[in-house]
UniProtKB/TrEMBL annotation:
Membrane association type: Multi-pass membrane protein
UniProt cross-references to CDD domains, sorted A to Z: TmCorA-like
Regions crossing the membrane: 248-269, 281-299
Keywords, ordered alphabetically: Cell membrane, Coiled coil, Membrane, Transmembrane, Transmembrane helix, Transport
SUPFAM superfamilies linked: CorA soluble domain-like, Magnesium transport protein CorA, transmembrane region
Protein name: Mg2 transporter protein CorA family protein
Subcellular localization(s) per the UniProt record: Cell membrane
Coiled coil regions, renumbered to chain: 212-246
Family designation: Belongs to the CorA metal ion transporter (MIT) (TC 1.A.35) family.
Main location: membrane
Organism expressing this protein natively: Candidatus Azambacteria bacterium RIFOXYD1_FULL_42_11
Pfam families tied to this protein: CorA
Length: 305
C-alpha cells in the first residue's frame, strides 16, 4: 500500500489486495460491503456506481505482453471519496509507477495533480493511463511497417502468420480499451453529481473522452491498414501461385505432343516408319525437338509466354 497526500487530498494505491487491506478500508471508510466484496476477486466488468458519499469505478488498462505478442486488459478499481482516491489492482502497472514517480520527484506536478478535488486527481491518473495506452500502440505501428516491408520484399508467404498475430493484437487492444468509452460517458452523468460544486470537471471528463477517441481512432487506422496489407499480400501470393500454375500448365502442353509422338514412334510394329532405319534414335529425338519447338513458337505467337 502506497500513500501520497497533498492539498488535503490523499491517494492510496493498493497492489494485490489482501484481506488486511479490505479490513483497513472497512474500518476507515463507509464503503458498502458489496463494493468491498468486488475487490477480491476482481469484478470482471466495467462499472460506474454512485453512492451517497463515494464513487466506485471499475476500469481497464491495456498492457502488451511481449512474450505472448498480445494485449491484455488489466483491471483497476477506483474508490473515490471527497478527500481520498483509492486505486486497487492485482498486477504491477507501469503507468501507476510513472505517476507515483512524478508525484515524488516533481513537486510542481504533484501540486497540479492533487487539486482541487479527487475528481481532478482521477482525471490525471486516467490521463496517464491513456498516454500509456497510446505508447502501447507504438509496437503495433512498427510491426505493421515491418509487414509492409516484408510484403514488397517477396516474403508474402512468411507474412501470413505475422499478419494474423498483428490482427489478434489489434483485436485484443480494442477489447481492452472499449470499456473506457462507457466509463467516461457515465462520468459525465453520475460523477458530476458527486462533485456538484466543481462544474469545471465536465471539461476534464470531456477531455478524457477526447483522448480516448484519439486512441480509438488510431487503432481503427491500424485495423484498416493491416486489412489492406492482408489483401495486398493475398493478391500478390495468388499472382505468384497463378504464375507458377500457368508455367507448369504451359510446359505440360508444350511437352505433351512431343511425348505423344515419341511414344507412338517407339511402338515396335512392322509398319513403324522410323524403327529400323539408320540413326532411328536420333530421328526420334529430332522429331521430339521439332514438335516441342513448334509448340513453343505457337504459345509465343499467342503471347501466352
Amino acid at each position: 500500500m502506497k500513500t501520497i497526500t497533498e492539498n488535503n487530498l490523499t491517494w492510496v494505491d493498493i497492489e494485490k489486495p489482501t484481506q488486511k487491506d479490505i479490513d483497513w478500508m472497512k474500518n476507515n471508510f463507509n464503503f458498502h460491503p458489496v463494493t468491498l466484496g468486488e475487490l477480491i476477486p476482481s469484478s470482471q466488468r466495467e462499472k460506474v456506481e454512485h453512492f451517497n458519499d463515494y464513487l466506485f469505478l471499475v476500469t481497464y488498462v491495456p498492457i502488451f505482453v511481449e512474450k505472448k505478442h498480445t494485449t491484455t486488459p488489466i483491471e483497476v478499481d477506483f474508490l473515490i471519496t471527497r478527500d481520498h482516491l483509492i486505486t486497487v489492482h492485482n498486477e504491477s502497472l507501469e503507468p501507476i509507477k510513472n505517476f507515483t514517480e512524478k508525484c515524488q520527484n516533481k513537486p510542481e506536478l504533484k501540486n497540479k495533480y492533487f487539486g482541487p478535488t479527487t475528481g481532478h486527481l482521477f482525471y490525471w491518473i486516467n490521463e496517464e493511463f491513456l498516454n500509456f495506452a497510446e505508447r502501447q500502440l507504438i509496437h503495433i505501428g512498427k510491426n505493421i511497417q515491418r509487414i509492409e516491408d516484408g510484403i514488397f520484399k517477396n516474403l508474402e508467404r512468411d507474412m501470413i502468420k505475422e499478419i494474423s498475430m498483428i490482427k489478434r493484437d489489434i483485436l485484443d487492444f480494442r477489447i481492452a480499451i472499449r470499456p473506457l468509452h462507457r466509463i467516461f460517458e457515465s462520468l459525465n452523468h453520475k460523477a458530476l453529481k458527486f462533485w456538484q460544486d466543481n462544474t469545471d470537471l465536465a471539461v476534464y471528463f470531456s477531455d478524457l473522452l477526447g483522448d480516448y477517441e484519439k486512441a480509438w481512432n488510431e487503432i481503427d487506422n491500424y485495423t484498416d491498414t493491416i486489412n489492406a496489407l492482408e489483401n495486398t499480400n493475398a493478391n500478390l501470393l495468388n499472382d505468384k501461385t497463378n504464375a507458377i500454375v500457368k508455367t507448369f500448365t504451359i510446359l505440360s502442353f508444350i511437352t505433351f505432343p512431343a511425348m505423344l509422338v515419341a511414344t507412338i514412334l517407339q511402338i515396335n510394329t512392322k509398319t513403324n516408319p522410323v524403327l529400323g532405319l539408320p540413326n532411328d534414335f536420333w530421328i526420334i529425338v529430332a522429331i521430339i525437338f521439332l514438335t516441342t519447338a513448334l509448340m513453343w513458337l505457337y504459345f509465343k505467337t499467342r503471347k501466352w509466354l
